[in-house]
Design brief:
alpha/beta; 5-stranded mixed sheet; 6 helices; globular; binds 3-methylcatechol; binds fe (iii) ion
């Protein structure tokens, strides 16, 4: 690369996004597992690690994996860490199953995976408000409104709707240099009836970075690198289970083959022309499950 153009600080590289995601994860406190006793924890690690090791050995024996393939795997695993792409790899290829297990008891809304690009504590806005965006933010304006209720139909006026998503280039603020810190990220309050009516800019589809370890795997395997365009949400209310969800746009070519396997029919928006302005509008209600009674 030409020295004058080597300013990696300002380009959207896999390693920048990956290393920010890795630091975010380290800071998130998500690894604390205090509810298990040491004995129960040891039994669980023993079970899961034994099964994982056995599954990998089974593949080697059944597929007669060669030393060349084994060493390619070793080199690739080292690169995943160097690029900070463990959060990306895990969230794209594994989180959807964890999410299924975690939420299959719910009677309210279907959720979906969080992904690697959530940032907590986004600025709080009112129930009828516009998400932070650049003055010249590109894309199709989107009015997004709805109501948050409990499974019994009671509106939840204390609810919060956190929204974060990519811009019209498919980039997330804080994971790509040069985008304002809280661009397209906010926490919306709801009104006394649990309603919100917000404005944002429709995101583009998301492509896994091609210059990192995940992109290398995708290219080597001949897969595609795309997630369909999506909104990320966390909807919470006191006494209710936090809903982490994604919402999708009809007609996206990757709704049927999302690389992260995170699309569900219940999460498809209905998009209409905005009756009160330019762009599109969509209505979507959230139904939250009450927190299970504590033991
Ligand atoms: C994303 O934007 C995303 O939502 C997930 C789950 C994985 C990678 C990028
Ligand atoms: Fe995303």
């Amino acid at each position: 690369m030409n020295a004058a153009h080597s300013d990696t600080q300002l380009s959207p590289t896999a390693a920048v996004a990956g290393n920010v995601a890795t630091e975010r994860f380290r800071a998130s406190g998500k690894t604390v597992n205090a509810h298990l006793s040491p004995e129960a924890s040891r039994a669980r690690v023993n079970l899961l690690a034994t099964r994982a090791v056995r599954a990998l050995n089974d593949i080697v024996l059944e597929e007669r994996v060669t030393y060349a393939e084994y060493n390619a795997l070793k080199a690739w695993l080292i690169k995943v860490g160097e690029d900070g792409e463990w959060p990306l790899w895990l969230d794209v290829w594994l989180e959807h199953s964890v999410e299924d297990v975690a939420t299959d008891h719910r009677q309210g809304n279907k959720g979906s995976i969080e992904g690697p690009y959530y940032v907590p504590d986004a600025p709080e806005l009112g129930p009828t408000d516009t998400i932070p965006m650049r003055e010249d933010e590109e894309g199709t304006p989107l009015r997004f409104f709805g109501q948050v209720r409990s499974v019994d139909g009671t509106p939840l006026p204390e609810a919060r709707v956190e929204l974060w998503h990519a811009d019209s280039d498919g980039y997330y603020s804080q994971f790509v240099p040069g985008i304002p810190e809280w661009n397209l990220r906010a926490t919306f309050r709801v009104d006394a009836e649990g309603r919100f009516d917000l404005r944002t800019m429709q995101p583009a589809a998301y492509q896994i970075p091609t210059d990192g370890a995940c992109g290398q795997l995708i290219a080597a395997a001949g897969w595609h690198a795309w997630r369909p365009a999506h909104l990320h949400l966390k909807v919470g209310a006191p006494g209710h289970e936090l809903l982490t969800a994604q919402l999708y746009f009809p007609g996206d070519p990757h709704n049927d083959d999302d690389i992260a396997t995170a699309v569900k029919p219940e999460l498809m928006l209905e998009i209409a022309p905005n009756s009160a302005g330019s762009g599109h509008q969509t209505e979507y209600d959230f139904v939250l499950d009450p927190e299970p009674a504590s033991p």
